[in-house]
Amino acid sequence: MQRSIKILFLYIVLSYPLLVTGCAGTAKPDTLSSDSLTEGLKELYDAQALLNKADKLFKDKDYISAAQEYRRFLELHPIHKSASYVQYRIGLAYFNQIRSIDRDIEPVQKALSAFEVVLKDYPGNEYTDDSREKIKICRGKLAEREFYIGNFYLKKEDYPAAIERFNNILKEFADTDVVPKAFYHLGIAYSSSGESTRAVEVLQDLLSKYPETTYKRGATQLLANLNHR
């Protein structure tokens, strides 16, 4: 994008003398005025103009275009005083595109990445707390997505695939609320695949780490069945 902007800028600069003067020094009626050129360059490069455009797109809920314009702003003005705000708005633009977990998960991934940049590149900024909260929500949705897929495999009796997904939740999303049900369903998957020892270990971990879990009754019953085999 920067390369195309530079090419356009050079074209305007090189064409300017021809556009504002005629063969005998008289301006042609169909040429661009210097004011038009100034406005065009301002729209291309001026920080406030770029920010206003992006904010308007965001306000109009054109989040895809808004994210593109915010990114363009950061490409041209990476150390601007509004950089943290712009990075935060990129995250919000993707966050506002999030739908249910059984649909496109890309907005969740992009929002998560954008909010992580807010924390990493702009420590202590005013958007830190909300970015952390949004990161937590995004990670929860990614964990729910992983569980959704794992449960699909479980119902299809593809136990190795289900086990892989549930284990991934415990490894990558251990800070989310999805963990207890991942433990429980992992125990079911191990039990159904004949790995009774692993099933017992997982269910005991569940009851030890989450003694008040809503899966307590089911886990206790399954453990009793496994211990009587």
Describe this structure in words.
This protein is an all-alpha fold. It has three domains: about 1-45, no CATH class; about 45-125, Tetratricopeptide repeat domain (Serine Threonine Protein Phosphatase 5, Tetratricopeptide repeat), CATH 1.25.40; about 155-229, Alpha Horseshoe (Serine Threonine Protein Phosphatase 5, Tetratricopeptide repeat), CATH 1.25.40.10. It is built from eleven helices and no strands. It has helices spanning about 1-20, 35-45, 45-60, 65-75, 85-95, 105-120, 130-155, 160-170, 180-190, 195-210, 215-225. α1 (about 1-20) runs antiparallel to α2, α4 (about 65-75) runs antiparallel to α5 and α9 (about 180-190) packs parallel to α11.
The CATH topology of the largest domain turns out to be: Serine Threonine Protein Phosphatase 5, Tetratricopeptide repeat
Largest sheet: none
| Annotated CATH architecture of the largest domain | Alpha Horseshoe
Uncertain segments: 1-30
Quick tags:
single chain, 229 residues, mainly alpha, Serine Threonine Protein Phosphatase 5, Tetratricopeptide repeat, 3 domains, 11 helices, 74% helix, disordered N terminus
